[in-house]
Amino acid sequence: MRLGRIPGRSSIGSRTGESKSEQVDAGQSRPQLFLLRSRWSGGRYAAVTWRECQVSNVLQKMARFIRFIVRTDHPSRTRCTGVVASLRIAGEEGRLPDYHVAYSAELFEKLNEGLPCPPFQGSNWSSDCVSWFKTTPEAQAWIRVFRDMIAILEDADLDVATLTTDKPGMIVYEDQFQVVAKSNQY
Fold it and tell me: Are residue 37 and residue 110 in the same domain, yes or no?
């Protein structure tokens, strides 16, 4: 199959008769280089091109894994408690109102029925292994369940952080919704 030329364009990325600095998006001209934000570069601030900002935004959107942790006074993120354990502990300690305890039980039941549980007990994984959700469309339903749990924890004045990455570490387990990865960074 041979790719043809787009009508009205002399080459991909430019319109006929326009230079690169005169390219338009939605009818507006945009200069090739302008200061969207500055970046520290070798002892001075350097201008960032529009293209660099586009690449930066794409890289931010490429985070393929998401993890939720409950922040504590411990300086290491690897020693923070996960959302499920924190919610269970808060309920057992009586820090949640009855309606949150009841809704938490529903959420736990939903998780137990549909989300595969990584085999932490039966494996020889190190204590540095943590679970990450994939950001695939299939995993979004489970991420929504976790967001409900996070809302309950935040109502109980617990601080929950969201971590995203495209490199969670060495993956030791994977299913359709999540991975377990070994990393001393997370």
Answer: no
pLDDT lower than 70: segments of the chain: 1-63, 73-79, 186
Please tell me the chain's helix, strand, coil percentages from 3-state DSSP, rounded to the nearest 5.
35, 25, 40
- CA-nearest of 141, 178, 165, 147 to 64 is 165
CA distance 22 to 176: 45
**Whether residue 57 is found in the same domain as residue 70:** no
Structural domain harbouring 147 = 64-115+126-182
d(CA 155, CA 177): 27
Structure pTM? 0.63
What is the DSSP secondary structure assignment for residue 174, as one 8-state letter?
A: E
Classify 32 in phi/psi space as left (phi over 0), alpha (psi -120 to 50) or beta: alpha
Report CA-CA distances (Å) from 83 to 44, 80, 132, 143, 173: 42, 10, 12, 12, 20
